[in-house]
Amino acid sequence: MTRIKLAALAAALLTIASPAAAKSLTVGANIGNVPWEFQDEKSETVGFEVELVKEMAKRMGYDETSFENIPFNGLFSAVQSGRIDAAISSITITKKRLESVSFAQPYYDSDQSLSVLKSSGIEGLKGLNGKVVGVDTGSTGDIYATAHEKELGLSEIRRFEGLSPAMLDLAAGRIDGYISDIPAVAYYIKDKPQYAVVERIPTGEQYSVMFAKDSPLVAEATKAITAMKTDGFLSGLHEKWFGTKPDAATSTVKVAEPPKL
Questions:
Q1: Nearest CA to 194 among 113, 117, 115?
Q2: Is residue 59's pLDDT more than 70?
Q3: Which of 26, 97, 99, 157 has the fewest CB atoms within 10 Å around its CB?
Q4: What is the DSSP-derived secondary structure letter of residue 40?
Q5: pLDDT tens, 115-155?
Q6: Are 212 and 221 spatial neighbours (Cβ–Cβ below 8 Å)?
Q7: In the sheet that 156-160 helps form, which strands lie side by side, from edge to edge?
Q8: CATH no., domain 110-205
Q9: Alpha-carbon span 115 to 195, nearest angstrom
Q10: Which of 3.40.190.10, 3.90.640.10, 3.30.43.10, 3.40.50.360 is the CATH number of 11-107+208-242?
Q11: Three-class SS of residue 257?
């Protein structure tokens, strides 16, 4: 047998012996976004959306889910370029975002909030005149604070990559208030009595998994999320992470279509 034939036979045998490559969904996330995606004491990535997207991927036919830690603002370009298949991080569906990316059906309803140190004496948005406010870069809180900067009389908007560094700066007095998603803040401060959420800012936000514009994965993900709502998986997840069952009128329970412009 010639050397060429031997090489071809060896390659063929190697192919037969090797197991099929696992089908993996690559998901970008701003890890440190409690309780949605963060590292626990074992340095494992956990959270409401981590469990959600792992279950979603399994129902879509993926063997595994891998996560890339990406700053919130970088998630958009990462999904658009194909560097990642999908993105999570309590990402709000907006008309502006729908111009360049797509979302599966929503799974969580939220609002923004203003949190402060109890000792600050700030009782709400009206108390922010001349104050420094923290937000997450590129988030809905950033959009809100920027749009209302003059109206609120803010002296400065300081931008952070995640909740934890913002809350540490709030504790140290480097910012006077923090505008961010209310569920994440409420979860963070539940055992930290020095903080308080002093005002809920109604925005009608809904969170979902983000994909590249018009990705075929949107329909597959929406189908999987529908099944997760129907069989109670999402309700159980809500109860595990937030301690209560979701309201039947919210997107954690109600089945919906993928959002469109």
A1: 117
A2: yes
A3: 99
A4: -
A5: 999 999 999 999 999 999 999 999 999 999 999 999 999 99
A6: no
A7: 156-160, 132-136, 177-181, 108-117, 195-207
A8: 3.40.190.10
A9: 7
A10: 3.40.190.10
A11: coil
Question: With 0-12 CB in 10 A as exposed, 13-18 as middle and 19+ as buried, what is 186?
Answer: middle
Record the tokens describing residue 59, joined without a space: 């129902």
For residue 17, name the pLDDT band (cuts at 50, 70, 90): very low
Q: Which two tokens stand for residue 228?
A: 């997760």
Structure token pair of residue 182: 């209310």
DSSP strand pairing (108-117 vs 195-207) = antiparallel
Structure tokens at 244: 């209560």
| CB-CB contact of 224 with 59 (8 Å) | yes
103: Cβ contacts below 8 Å, ≥ 6 apart: 91, 93, 97, 208, 209, 210, 211, 218, 258, 259
